Amino acid sequence: MAYYWFKAFHLIGVVVWFAGLFYLVRLFVYHAEAYQEPEPARTILKKQYELMEKRLYNIITTPGMLVTVAMAIGLISTEPEILKSSWLHIKLGLVLLLIGYHHYCKRIMKQLAKDECKWTGQQFRALNEAPTIMLVLIVLLAVFKNNLPLDLTTWLIVALVIAMVASIQLYAKKRRKDKEKLAQSELQPELASTSVE
Ligand code: HEM
């Protein structure tokens, strides 16, 4: 019975951890874009994002990671023979990468707070695809274990996931371009009136 409790809370931890990781980097996108705003909006937005990032990291993301890992230790301690499975070794390698990504986000957070981060909103959007890939790979390994199929269905699903990620990026790009066009068209009448004066 303990095994099921550990597994249930392991999965709850995973959901919380990933919710935190995804939202944190989305906040980095807004934070980086706030640099283009005029004052005083820039300073107000930067302070607000800094606070939101700190709270999200400390109250959601890091506890999510700790619950996931603690419950995983519980799972392994109730069934130690699982440690011999090769799928778990690969999964542990991917989880180590994920923990590295988690700490890298903390570094970016500190750089943003000190105005030392040179990343653009677009670069943060691309960075946010990294946990998506790790999530897909880790869940596939956890579910299929040593029997991960490499048949046509699997490749079709992989292609579908890639197409979904690409279309989200393209849609975001289109929205940004539309916004820029709108801002320019709002600015042009002002320019025209200043040149007449
Ligand atoms: C320290 C890191 C981790 C360890 C040692 C670990 C270990 C384990 C173990 C031993 C199980 C039980 C497998 C079974 O009952 O068959 C499990 C289940 C699971 N883990 Fe993890 N895990 C870790 C992190 C993660 C992460 C980061 C994710 C998601 C991205 C994840 C997703 C899952 C899923 C979906 C299951 C349920 C699989 C099933 O019942 O079929 N795990 N994990």
TrEMBL record:
Q: Name one GO cellular component term.
A: plasma membrane
Answer whether the UniProt record assigns the keyword Cell membrane to this protein: yes
User: Which keywords, in A-to-Z order, does the entry hold?
Assistant: Cell membrane, Heme, Iron, Membrane, Metal-binding, Oxidoreductase, Transmembrane, Transmembrane helix
| Keyword Transmembrane attributed | yes
Please name the InterPro entries in this protein's record: HemJ-like
**Localization:** Cell membrane
Which reactions are catalysed by this chain? protoporphyrinogen IX + 3 A = protoporphyrin IX + 3 AH2
Which pathway does this chain act in?
Porphyrin-containing compound metabolism; protoporphyrin-IX biosynthesis; protoporphyrin-IX from protoporphyrinogen-IX: step 1/1
Positions contributing to heme binding: 10, 91
Q: Which domain of life is it from?
A: Bacteria
Write down the EC number.
1.3.99.-
- How is its cofactor bound, per UniProt? Binds 1 heme b (iron(II)-protoporphyrin IX) group per subunit.
Q: Which GO terms describe its biological process?
A: protoporphyrinogen IX biosynthetic process
Q: Which PANTHER family match?
A: PROTOPORPHYRINOGEN IX OXIDASE, UPF0093 MEMBRANE PROTEIN SLR1790
HAMAP family (UniProt xref): HemJ
Q: Which family does it belong to?
A: Belongs to the HemJ family.
UniProt xrefs under NCBIfam families: protoporphyrinogen oxidase HemJ
Question: What name goes with this protein?
Answer: Protoporphyrinogen IX oxidase
